[in-house]
Design brief:
By secondary structure, the chain is α+β, with helices and mostly antiparallel strands. The chain contains 23 helices and 10 strands. It has 4 domains: 11-152, 2-Layer Sandwich (Beta Polymerase, domain 2); 159-238, Hydrophobic Seed Protein; 240-397, Hypothetical protein af1432 (Orthogonal Bundle); 403-461. The longest helix has 19 residues, at 443-461. The structure holds adenosine-5'-triphosphate (ATP) and magnesium ion. Adenosine-5'-triphosphate (ATP) is lined by residues 31-32, 44-45, 47, 119-120, 124-125, 168, 170-171.
Length: 462
């Protein structure tokens, strides 16, 4: 029996197919959308492959954009699954990949089979649609047996795996990412070919590495993709800072080196807070400062060094600035050690130091780090710290200059001070006082305190 049409194809995508068909063109759904829909996964983008030339596609879809050499016209839609528009790409053959990344040239073809043959993995080379000028019903086309691989959960290169990875190093990263994302096994020949061609990962642009890294970290468990990259040797070419953790000794879990610890920590983060991908990324990177600081069995300053390295790495990989800053700040602060004897003031100073918006992530990072060290997540009285932090946040205890009951103008006008750095210093000192005892945060009390300090300072200066 013929397999049913792909599920949940948005009406606008269907309309694009119908338009191409009714104008005498071959048109098929292909790629990740087909794959994910067959797996019952959420489809992030639908791709259409067609025999129509880009100019023909452009003339059928007003508002289409054609700004590349590869035959892709982006047709605008309002479909929520495709906010960026649907990519309608002319069937093509690719030629020579001198840079191990992009074909030197492409030739358009009217053969769907040739188009499917240039695709990376069999599960990405399944098509559903209609050929040109015929009134046949839409049907499945699967020359590489992708449907069978989809059923058994196997990722297999289309054609000669070694040639395919050698052509384009991005496929190495896509293989690890897709296997992790889909929970698939990489077929043996494909995996061997990855190891044999691992160096071509060097040709992949940092931005593309960043894009794949983002998806790897979101997989369940996230360590899966990194294990594949490490095992095939791709890791040292694509992400050398991560690869440097392999073989570095570590006394946390017996038999685990630093890399094993990082892997267990990133998986720990995805258990502690599955939806927080920035936390997973931080967990992955939290100890990257260890290899360069390793000396006499210690890693002194690895938190600061790691924060700098993470910042440089994520900037290179084109992560957004706010996320880079967050990961880096969390790594810089990850070595805190809480004691139940901390006073309320100590808890408030801790929140102030790490930042109100960072403190929950920092505690969860430690929970993940605990899991990665073979400890219960709450080891080190973390649950107690978390509830004390929450109580302070709920009480809206003043923790920043903005929350003081006085500001610089109050000090200048009330105490007759001259504007200048001394005013800032005085505000900092008042904040210290208020963090020690939040009850002091009234205007009168703070002005009186500031007056007393300035008078004392003047007396001492005379
Ligand atoms: P995702 O959208 O989750 O990144 P995808 O497989 O849909 O996964 P796209 O970048 O959207 O990836 O590409 C769409 C299709 O184009 C793929 O399914 C595959 O058929 C083909 N493709 C993408 N990148 C490559 C590549 N580097 N080499 C060969 N074919 C590729
Ligand atoms: Mg896609």
């Amino acid at each position: 029996m013929e397999r049913p049409a792909p599920a949940d194809v948005p009406a606008e995508v269907q309309r694009i197919l119908e338009t191409l068909w009714s104008n005498g063109h071959a048109a098929y759904l292909v790629g990740g959308g087909v794959r994910d829909s067959l797996l019952g996964r959420a489809v992030t983008d639908w791709d259409v492959a067609t025999g129509a030339l880009p100019e023909q596609t452009m003339s059928l879809f007003p508002g289409g954009q054609y700004t590349n050499r590869f035959g892709t016209v982006t047709v605008p839609t309002t479909a929520p699954s495709d906010p960026m528009g649907v990519e309608v790409t002319t069937f093509r053959r690719d030629h020579r990949y001198a840079d191990h990344r992009r074909p030197d040239s492409v030739t358009f073809t009217d053969s769907l089979e040739e188009d499917l043959a240039r695709r990376d993995f069999t599960v990405n080379a399944i098509a559903w649609g209609r050929p040109a000028g015929q009134s046949t019903e839409p049907h499945w086309v699967d020359p590489t047996d992708g449907l069978a691989d989809l059923e058994t959960g196997v990722l297999r290169a289309v054609g000669d795996a070694k040639v395919r990875f050698d052509e384009d190093g991005l496929r190495l990263l896509r293989a690890a990412r897709l296997a992790a994302q889909l929970g698939f096994d990489i077929e043996a020949t494909t995996l061997t070919a990855m190891a044999a061609t691992s160096h071509t990962a060097r040709w992949v642009s940092s931005e593309r590495v960043g894009g794949e890294l983002r998806k790897m970290v979101a997989a369940d468990p996230p360590s899966r993709a990194f294990a594949i990259l490490a095992e095939t040797g791709v890791l040292e070419h694509a992400l050398p800072e991560l690869a440097a953790q392999r073989g570095v000794p570590q006394d946390k879990i017996t038999g685990h080196d630093l890399w094993g610890h990082s892997m267990a920590t990133v998986d720990g983060a995805s258990i502690v807070e599955p939806s927080n991908k920035t936390l997973c990324l931080t967990a992955l990177l939290h100890d990257i400062g260890k290899p360069p600081t390793f000396a006499d069995g210690h890693f002194i300053g690895h938190d600061e060094e790691g924060a700098k390295m993470a910042e440089a790495l994520l900037t290179r990989l084109a992560y957004p600035r706010h996320e880079v800053a967050r990961v880096s700040a969390l790594i810089a602060n990850h070595m805190f050690s809480y004691e139940p004897r901390w006073s309320g003031a100590a808890v408030r100073r801790f929140i102030r130091r790490v930042g109100r918006d960072f403190v929950d992530d920092l505690i969860n990072l430690r929970r993940a780090d605990n899991i990665g060290s073979g400890l219960p997540p709450e080891a080190g009285h973390l649950d107690e710290l978390a509830s004390r932090v929450k109580a302070e946040l709920d009480a809206r205890s003043p923790l920043s200059l903005r929350e003081l009951a006085v500001d610089g103008d109050d000090l200048i006008n009330g105490l007759g001070l001259k504007p200048g750095p001394a005013v800032g210093e005085l505000l900092e000192r008042l904040l210290g006082s208020v963090i020690a005892d939040p009850a002091r945060n009234t205007r009168e009390r703070l002005l009186a305190e500031a007056r007393a300090w300035t008078t004392r300072a003047e007396a001492a200066a005379e």
